[in-house]
Design brief:
- With about 300 residues, the chain is α/β, with parallel strands linked by helices.
- The protein has one domain (about 5-300): Ureohydrolase domain (Arginase, Chain A, 3-Layer(aba) Sandwich), CATH 3.40.800.
- It is built from ten helices and eight strands.
- β5, α6 (about 180-185) and β6 form a beta-alpha-beta unit.
- The model has no long low-confidence stretch (mean pLDDT about 95).
Length: about 300
């Protein structure tokens, strides 16, 4: 089924100290995201790159990296998500994963306005379940999932008006969760499928079970795909590499099942750092995965040489 795909470039690079993710949106465009989606019959509207609201200078003694800038991005993305959701399926092109603070809270607010529950499929090596008081690194890309589920400890960020219930979130691919996050997660109803679970049981059964719940409850589904969900051997362009990630085939299978479900209502593509890429291979792979999520079949994949 043809859809209106709305590309929103989010050159957010404030969630961590290592620069480069601000180049992500243009790398997706250069890797052919627009023709890939248009070639599948979708209408593609590119909103270009957005900018954050004005923000105060950072406190040089602040432990949290670029706090004011990330707060500004969160408010901007919250408003943007609500504006674009009625127009089609927004695809937020990051930018680091701190963008999910605004994108997910914004799409959840829209879901509430139309009387539907919000669900989130979190494809990531990390749970990103810290708050501002527990992050030892001070990097705010490690906090979005805690934020949009309504955890405390996030002032001065905007209060989350419509938190996503823990039981409405499925995290797949986890393999780097610190002790504090693990204890916090254990006290919730988050649906967790780490890489050992995937190795032992595969991706099909847990994903289809989650999607069945989304469909049964007429839910809206946001998919947040982090480059580090993938194994760094196939996707090197990320500053948070963790060995043992998803393979090309596992990732495509997930995206194909998502398309078959017809449930995706919004999406993040995050943590692509083109400065760390090898001849665009990670950007191309992320574009190919997005295309699979929007209808490209196994026989239709392009052949590429990076030699």
């Amino acid at each position: 089924m043809a859809q209106n795909c709305i590309l929103v470039g989010v050159p957010l690079d404030s969630g961590k100290a290592r620069d480069g993710c601000l180049m992500g949106p243009d790398a997706y465009r250069t890797a052919g995201l627009v023709p890939a989606l248009a070639g599948l019959g979708h209408k593609v509207v590119d909103f270009g790159n957005i900018t954050p609201a004005p923000y105060a200078a950072e406190d040089p003694d602040q432990h949290l990296h670029a706090l004011n800038e990330t707060v500004a991005w969160t408010q901007t993305l919250y408003d943007c998500a609500q504006d674009v959701m009625p127009q089609g399926v927004p695809i937020f092109l990051g930018g680091d994963h701190a963008l999910a603070m605004g994108s997910v809270s914004g799409v959840a607010a829209h879901a509430a306005s139309v009387g539907r529950p919000q669900y989130v499929l979190w494809l990531d090596a990390h749970s990103d379940f810290h708050d501002l008081t527990t992050t030892s690194s001070g990097n705010l890309h490690g906090t979005p999932a805690a934020y949009f589920t309504g955890a405390s400890g996030f002032a001065p960020f905007p209060a989350v008006q419509h938190p996503v219930p823990h039981e409405n979130i499925c995290m797949m691919g986890l393999r780097s969760v610190d002790e504090w996050e693990g204890k916090r997660i254990a006290a919730t109803d988050l649906q967790i499928h780490d890489m050992r679970d995937i190795d032992e049981n595969g991706v099909v059964k847990p994903l289809k079970a989650f999607l069945s719940r989304v469909a049964a409850n007429n839910g809206m589904l946001h998919v947040s795909l982090d480059v580090d969900f993938l194994d760094p051997a196939i996707a090197p362009a990320v500053g948070t590499t963790v060995p043992g990630g998803a393979t090309v085939r596992e990732a495509h299978l997930i995206c194909e099942i998502l398309h078959d479900s017809g449930l995706i209502t919004s999406m993040d593509l995050v943590e692509l750092n083109p400065f760390l890429d090898e001849r665009g291979r990670t950007a191309h792979l992320m574009v190919d995965l997005c295309a699979s999520a929007f209808g490209r079949r196994v026989f239709d994949r392009p052949t590429r040489s990076f030699l």
